[in-house]
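Re: the request from the purification team.
They wanted to know what the chain is likely to look like in 3D before they choose a buffer screen. I agreed to run a prediction and write the result into the notebook, where they can find it.
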Amino acid sequence: MSSESEAGTSGFYSFILKPGSSLHPTFLLGVDCAFALLFLVFVWSAYLTNGNAHFFILMAIEVALWASVKWYISTLFPFSLGTKVVVGSYKN
């Protein structure tokens, strides 16, 4: 049983560490679910602490991080379609 779980774990890590896996829809769904769960934890913590300002600041930071990750992935997407970019080829 432990060898099956180790094989599954190593398969998961080999998938995550493979170049280009950050654009895979399953990976992106996992990232979105992790951010959503973290946001819900902050909302629940703010509710339990009767609106502690620290949790609202953490929620703002988390949303900004989530937005920056989504923006970065959107800038990577054109390159996954096979667009060729030559570094240093800018000419006036």
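For the purification team: The helical segments are 2-16, 25-48, 53-80.
Please add any questions underneath this entry.
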